[in-house]
Amino acid sequence: MPPYPDELSTEIRNRFAHVDACPFTGPRIFFENAGGALTLNSVVDTSARFAAIPDNQGRDNAASAALGKAIADARADMALFFNTTSGRFLVGESGTELLFRLIRTAVMGQSGKGAVIGSSVEHPASRSAARHWARQAGVDYISVSHDDATGRVTADSYAQMVREDVRVATILHTSPVTGVANDVAAIAKAIRAKAPEAFIIVDGIQHASHGRIDISAYEVDGYVVSPYKMFSRHGYGVAWASDRLTGLDIETLANGPKGNWEMGTRDTGSYATFSDVVRYFEWLGSEVSDAETPRDRIVAAGASIHTHEKALTDAMLHGVGNLPGLASLDGVTILGGTDNPDREGLVCFALDSLPADKIVDGLNDSGIRTHIRRADHYSGNILTPLGLEAAVRVSLCHYNTMDEVRAFLSAVQEMALPNATNT
């Protein structure tokens, strides 16, 4: 399927800061979006505006009331984007911190024995938290193995391992190493078939920038994102907690408002910049569809993002024009497989003939920003079973273009086949 037309692509790119040049090194192509996406210009403006306001929420003055309204509006926007009419939204230090907090609350908020279940494909943000709090609670941790070839963990795999006494389950929506998404709704259903009362927490950090979040369809209790990976900025994470999870003995100020997850004065700019992201998705949806409601526009935006990014990743893998793709290179390993229908805007690869760090350095020299994933505490769960010490992660978003993919393939071709010429 074709990517965005040039005119729309230009409009999209004009809405982002540093889209084609690094403020430190000059012109570059940004294929390191899984490490942190580009920032909307509107987010930059909103951040500066709210950073300059000296007032706090909860005071009896007009400025304080305006801050309170910005937060309330943002929470409504979060509900719109995540598609839920229940539960609570909270802002924290980061997505990782929020995953730890939600998982801690779910595990420690229940008495008696039981078990915690998660999968080997997960990022340590959820896996480390689940294992740690299972130990603290003195309960079993059950590890569901992912499939090394596809990079995916399935509902069937969870179903084979889940026990009736599971009290907490964690699910990774999309891997930041392989870019492969898991079927959250199917996995949650498989868990609840045996452990209907389990609290299910989802790491949606890598998935969020690609759109298509629908909490109402998942039947889960927690969902966490990192806004700096979805066109906002660093310094905060956003979590949704179900009413059931909020009903546990959460950490909160004594005698304060019931069910209040947040402690201390909030950064209003965090909330306001999330609203900027939601407005952007609505705008994009209006450009690619005739959808009339805000939610339908967000859905349409997510669908168009998936289509555009698939066109780009397919070109990376299979080539475009007279440029061969990564899959044609001798001794190449494509994490998750070459033709994986669950891939979301990311290709991770390794070459037998050239170390990953050399590839990343060479691409940097060509003005193309990518990232090395090593078999460490972040990525060893994915790379080690494949016999890889490192791999090159090429992660893109919908503002990237086919011309950028061509430049990438040309640079890789020159490094992998230095004597080859493109005809």
UniProtKB/TrEMBL annotation:
Aminotransferase class V domain: residues covered: 29-246, 305-408
Keywords, ordered alphabetically: Pyridoxal phosphate
InterPro entries cross-referenced by the UniProt entry: Aminotrans_V_dom, PyrdxlP-dep_Trfase, PyrdxlP-dep_Trfase_major, PyrdxlP-dep_Trfase_small
Domain of life: Bacteria
One Pfam family this sequence matches: Aminotran_5
Protein name (database record): Nitrogen fixation protein NifS
